[in-house]
Amino acid sequence: MNIAPGDLSVQVTTDQDGTLWVELRGEADIATHDHLRATLAQIPLDGKGAVHLRLRELTFCDTRAFCHLVSFAARVQQRGRRLATDGASGIIRKMSALLDTHGRLNLA
User: Fold this and answer.
1) HEC per residue, 46-103
2) In which domain, by residue range, is 64 found?
């Protein structure tokens, strides 16, 4: 699944072992909030493999988009899957520290 509204692309792939890869590219801002929220909500989380949230190519993330990522992380963990986040920018790390969500996002 690859959804790219505006300046944000969300690509979702699954490995043979059930590992789910969610890669965000571009800018997560007011223009893409609804698309980001809807896209993350429709990602199927059935299965047993880990979920990897790749943010290396995410060039901008405002606080509302960040909250969508945290909600997605909570949903992943509620389904009993392990979440790993990699490539988080300094601003995402700072928001995570300020909002005490480091454990939820499992930042690497």
Assistant:
1) CCCCCEEEEEEEEEEECHHHHHHHHHHHHHHHHCCCCEEEECCCHHHHHHHHHCCCHH
2) 2-105
